[in-house]
Hints:
30% of the residues lie in helices and 33% in strands. By secondary structure, it is α+β, with helices and mostly antiparallel strands.
Amino acid sequence: MSTAxxxxxxxxxxxxxxxxANEDGDFFAQVEGRDRVKAPTLKxxxxxxRDIKRLNRVKVPITLLKTPSWRxxxxxxxxxxxxxTGIHASNRALLFKxxxxxxxQLSSYDGQICRRLTEEEIHHTQSLWxxxxxxxxxxxxxxxxxxxxxxxxxxEAANLPAEEE
Length: 165
């Protein structure tokens, strides 16, 4: 188990960030209560910390569109209006805050990030989704109506009894 020593305090945008080094030669810091940010050199760590602080001062308006996963029986979609507020320091996930105040980290599985949609665009997208679901159900029903048991047809054509199960 390696031990760490504080080597300096860095000020970035008015925040005091304590910089540590361990006996393995790694430099690291805690940023605003998040996971540890580390780098192989002090200069790289300082650059990384400045970038993180800069990235976490943004407010990018988006609409998060969530569609059902292939494992889900649900056939509904949802829209969440909010803002991307930065990028997580260690895992690089987008930080999202919805207009109802809920914060979360977004991964590629959490939905489609769209530009901020108007109510009209949301309504249109919802209508297209519903038409897609109806078309898929109609296709599946039609496809089922066309299917036959090829083995049974061949046995029937050869005047053989149906296979026993």
